[in-house]
Amino acid sequence: MDKKKILYVHIGHYKTGSSAIQDYCSAHAAELGQYGYLYPATARPRGNPTNHGHLSLSVARKHGFVPPPWYGENVGADEAWAALAAEINASPHRKIILSSEEFVQLALRKDHAAAIGELAQRLAPYDTRILFYMREPLSLLKSWYNEVNKGPSGTRNFPTFFTALNVDFLAQGAIWSRFAEAFGRENMITRAYGDIGQAHIAGFMQAIGCGHDPAEKRNLVNTAQPLDALEKRRLAKSALPFEAASFSHINDIKAFRNRALRISREYDAIACATDLPNRSALTAAAVIAHYAALLSPNLPEGRINQKEVDNLRDMAFAIEEIDLPLARELMEVAHMLRPHGQLISTRLGAYRSRLEASS
Predict the structure, then answer these.
(1) In this structure, are 240 and 277 located in the same domain?
(2) Phi, psi for 327 (deg, rounded to 5)
(3) How far is 38 from 91, CA to CA, in rounded Å?
(4) What is the Cα–Cα distance from 200 to 251, expressed in whole angstroms?
(5) 64 in a structural domain
(6) What is the tally of structural domains in the chain?
(7) What CATH number does residue 194 fall under?
(8) Which residue has the higher pLDDT, 182 or 220?
(9) Residue 265 neighbours by CB under 8 Å, 6+ apart
(10) Are 154 and 237 within 8 A, CB to CB?
C-alpha cells in the first residue's frame, strides 16, 4: 500500500484569487485539520504570512528570479524545505495543502526544466498534485496592469505594458505544459478562474476533495483600483516625463497584432485540452479598446500627448489592409484625443462604413 502523503500544491496563477484562498486556509487551518488536511505553518514569509512563499521563492531565486519587493528575506531552499518536511512528518494528517502563486515563476525561467525539476525532486517523497487556475488572457492582462500599478512606480502605458509582458505569462499554456511534463498530466488539477468570495473557496475545496464547507461569507482580499482613477494615478507615479509615459511604444503594429493572436491561440489550445469553458477574448483591438477606456475619464482635465495621437493614427494606416477592426480601434482613440482632426475623422468614418457594410 502506498503510504506517501498527498500534497496539493496550489501554484496560482497570479490574479486568480490566490490571496483569498491563502487567507481562508490560514484562518481555518484548524477546521481543515478536522477533515485530514494540513495547511503548514512553516515556510511563510513575514511580508505575506498566509502563503508558502519561502518554498517557491527560495527555488525560483536559485534559477534567476528576482523576488518581489515585499519579500525581503533571504531564506535558503534547503532550510525552507527542511522545515516543511519536519512539520509534515510530525503531523498526523495525510493530506497537505501548499499555496504560493510564485511557483508559477519556475515555469517562466530561462531553464524552466531545471527549475521545475528541482521542485519535483524536493517533492519526490510525496504524492503530488498540481492545482492551477487559468484566467482568460484579456481579463488577466487588465487585472495584472491594475495590480502592478498599485506599486510606488507607474508602468508604461497599457499597450506598451502588453508588448513587454511575457507571452507565456498571459497564454498560460506553457506554464501548464511544463508542470504537466514534470508531474504528469494525470496529476494536474486545472480550474477556470471566475468565481469570487465564498464560491471561489468552495471550488478550491472541491478541487482538492475536501469536505469542508466554507459557509462563512468572504470579502475580497485584494481589490482592484477603480478604472476611472487608474491612468491618473499611474501618470502621477511615473518617473518618466509625460511625453514618454503617455506614448505607446509599439515598434511594429503587425507584430503587436500577431502577439495577441499567438497568446489567444496558445491559451485556447490548453483550455480546450483541460475542458475549460472559456475562450480567449484577447485581440490587439481589445487591448486598444481598453486603452481608450483608461484614457477617457481623464480627458476633461488631463493633458493630451499630440505625438501619441499621430502615433495611433499612423499605426491605423499601417494595419488597415490587414486588420480593419484594429485600425478602427486605433483611429477611435486618436479621434477621442483629437476630435476635430479632419484626416482622423475622415478615415475613421471610412473604417466605420466598411465594417458596417461587411457585417
Answers:
(1) yes
(2) -60, -40
(3) 8
(4) 40
(5) yes
(6) 2
(7) 3.40.50
(8) 182
(9) none
(10) yes
Do 82 and 194 lie in a common domain? yes
Of residues 220, 355, 217, 246, the one with CA closest to residue 311: 246
Q: Average model confidence (pLDDT) for the chain?
A: 95
Helix, strand, or coil here: 131? Answer: strand
Rounded distance between C-alpha atoms, residue 198 and residue 29, angstroms: 16
Q: pLDDT band at residue 220, thresholds of 50, 70 and 90?
A: low
3-class SS at 96?
strand
Q: What is the pLDDT of residues 151-207, one digit of tens each?
A: 899 999 999 999 999 999 999 999 999 999 999 999 999 999 988 788 999 999 999
> Beta strand pairing status for 127-134 and 188-192?
parallel
- 241 and 339 assigned to the same domain: yes
Helices first, then strands: H and E counts in the chain: 18, 5
233 and 126 in a common domain: no
Q: Which residue has 523576488 as its cell numbers?
A: 67
User: Grid cell 475613421 — which residue?
Assistant: 348
Q: Are residues 274 and 189 in the same domain?
A: no
**Model pLDDT for residues 277-312, shown as the tens digit of each residue:** 889 999 999 999 999 999 999 888 888 999 999 999
- Could you write out the DSSP letters of every residue in 146-163? HHHTTSSS--S-HHHHHH
Per-residue pLDDT tens digits for 74-119: 999 999 999 999 999 999 999 999 999 999 999 999 999 999 999 9
Q: Averaged over 45-71, what is the pLDDT?
A: 95
Owning domain of residue 43: 6-135+172-207
Instruction: Confirm whether 66 is domain-assigned.
Output: yes
d(CA 321, CA 341): 22
